[in-house]
């Protein structure tokens, strides 16, 4: 019997996948939605920062907040870093969750939620900057308040309702803190001026 001939080997070209080194992405997951409010308020950055960073008082005036408590507090590179538990209830949503709150004195307060059963992402950010004096009140204290909220529900069932609702939340939150400032510090130096909104 004659020896078998070796099978013909075909040199197949290698296919390059340019993004093969990148981590796997789930394309069904949309990025977080955001809402943004800017307003000039007739109080100093120090006054408004004091209100926003006082987490323990949120349940007294923040809409839909039923419970607020600071669990821990530490100093880190000139910042105050807090762990705070918040209980919220609004419309069909209700839960308790813990946020890490980073406070840069008189400039910024940012809260990032963790262990939430409702939200994959929930980040609120307050920024404070000295406002621009007006011709009628050149010496009055004003602050440009920049408030933003970024959120993403874990359940797609809530996604179609979230955009309209959180646009309302953004407006109501700024109004609630402005009313709190009025009660704590008295009437504002100027009437609220609406800044950019996006």
Question: Mind sketching the topology for me?
Answer:
Blueprint: E1 33-41, H1 45-53, H2 58-61, E2 65-76, E3 79-90, E4 93-104, E5 108-114, E6 119-130, E7 143-153, H3 159-185, E8 193-194
Antiparallel strand pairs: 1-7, 1-8, 2-3, 3-4, 4-5, 5-6, 6-7
Helix pairs in contact: 1-3
Structural write-up:
This protein has 198 residues and is of the alpha+beta class. It has one domain: START domain (Alpha-D-Glucose-1,6-Bisphosphate, Chain A, domain 4, 2-Layer Sandwich). The protein contains 3 helices and 8 strands. Helix 1 crosses helix 3. The longest helix has 27 residues.
Label the structural class: alpha+beta
CATH architecture: 2-Layer Sandwich
CATH superfamily: START domain
**In terms of per-residue confidence, which ranges show pLDDT below 50 for 5 or more consecutive residues?**
17-27
State the end-to-end CA separation.
Answer: 83 Å
Give helix % range.
10-25%
Rg measurement, Å: 25 Å
> What oligomeric arrangement do these chains adopt?
single chain
User: Might you state the CATH topology name?
Assistant: Alpha-D-Glucose-1,6-Bisphosphate, Chain A, domain 4
Spatial strand arrangement across the major sheet: 2-3-4-5-6-7-1-8
Provide the succession of SSEs. EHHEEEEEEHE
Shape: globular
CATH class descriptor? Alpha Beta
Report the sheet-strand fraction. Answer: 35-45%
Number of strands: 8
Give the rounded overall mean pLDDT: 81
What is the count of helical runs?
Answer: 3
Estimate nothing, just give the exact number of structural domains: 1
Q: The biggest beta sheet, please?
A: 8 strands, antiparallel
